What does this fold into?
Amino acid sequence: MVTEHPLRERVRPEFERGEQQLVVVDLFAGCGGLTLGVAQAAHERGLGLQVPLALDFDKAPVDVYRANFPEANVQVGAVESYFDGDLGATPTQTESVTRQEVGEVDLLIGGPPCQGHSNLNNHTRRDDPKNRLYLRMARAAEVLRPRVLVIENVPAVVHDSQQVVARASAHLTALGYDVATMRVELVKLGIPQTRRRHILLAVRSDLLGGGAASDFLEFEPEPVHDLRWAIGDLEHIDSTRGIDRPSRMSPENRQRIQWLINNREVNLPNHFRPPCHRGDHSYVSMYGRLSWDLPAQTITSGFGSMGQGRYGHPSQPRTLTPHEAARIQGFPDFFQFDDIVTRTQLSVIIGNAVPPALARVLTGRLLEAGVLPVPEVKPLQRSA
It folds into this structure.
């Protein structure tokens, strides 16, 4: 039996249909990468998806989320306007209304803005007010009391000057959750890029039956996928869709990538680089070419520019297309991006997205352990 390539699926599964609903709230939702991963894990086990609330402050990713999860209640808004109370305080009127409207929650997920934590941010790194939005996830868990909470962020979040991870962990523990954290290499989860993320997992202690939240973060390594596995079929794609068109390149950059291809090199020599990128430096990936037989580097919103990373195509004189970048992030072809947002918005949305595989693998483990609800197994009917 030939199994369809998981990234080439063009027909969206009916994620909302199932014997039982998995109730998910997604905060700082972006375009819905975490929600998609949860939906995939639930669908594989006969569960439907119900999203009583998803939030993001930016309209563009919300439009993409809404197009892909039309039955979800997704809103443009600030998370702190729905969860506006202090940690440990009695729920505010706003929070009480939110809790009443949302109801019982199985899984609370979110990826708070991480620019302040990123090592790419040299000006406000580790002391950015946005970093404190991480604690809004802990407050939301205090108000909604989900069975499970998952917070996704960059690895450098542990160095935040406000100690948001330690503070969130301590508060959740006091609320009766068992908390575990881990830095995850996504390439080990089948994602074809060398991306690393930090995960905080909090599980209500009464659901663990003597186990620990850390048990669910001991992932079994999946096969490592290279770039050809992810985008090999798109090498010569003939399409008029905007998502399949690469960014325009300057004549100089076209010459640079053609030189790399002709000489079978992946790193551009210093004398071919712009003056500002020459000299003694460690940024060898800038103006570099990707390799078919290796995973890609981390996808960012700059995937269409040679000057922002190793985003030169392995065999074509161009950079990655949005379609290829979405594939490398782990989004199947049925996920709709084009015709919803502008080209600039598209780059930011795809670059900022959370690879769905992270939530798919973790949710699957939680479902298999019974920490999240699963459909009752119906006995087989024996014929007379």
About this structure: The two ends are 33 Å apart (CA to CA). Confidence is low (pLDDT under 50) at residues 116-128, 377-384. The chain has two domains: 20-225+354-368, 227-350.
